[in-house]
Amino acid sequence: MIRHIGDIENGAKREDAIYMLVSCSAFVNYLIAKYEDKKD
């Protein structure tokens, strides 16, 4: 599971953490855009 830097030795890789960060950021941006569309 990717949650904390301490989990890296338990199998989480840096590239997995970066993937999750980018994916979550994209999803948040999508939700913001959908919210902005509904406001207008």
Give a verbal description of the structure.
The chain has one helix spanning about 15-40. The termini are far apart. The protein has one domain (about 5-40). The longest helix has 26 residues, at about 15-40. The protein is about 65% helix and about 0% strand. It is rod-shaped. It has 1 helix and no strands. With about 40 residues, the protein is mostly helical.
Question: What would a concise description of this structure say?
Answer:
With 40 residues, the chain is mainly α. The chain has one helix at 14-39.
Q: How is this fold's topology laid out?
A:
Elements: H1 14-39
Gyration radius, rounded: 15 Å
Structural class by secondary-structure content: mainly alpha
- Kindly report the average pLDDT value: 83
Uncertain runs are none
- Report the end-to-end length measured between terminal Cα atoms: 39 Å
**Total E-strand runs:** 0
Outline:
rod-shaped
Q: Summarize the main sheet.
A: none
Q: Provide the helix percentage.
A: 55-70%
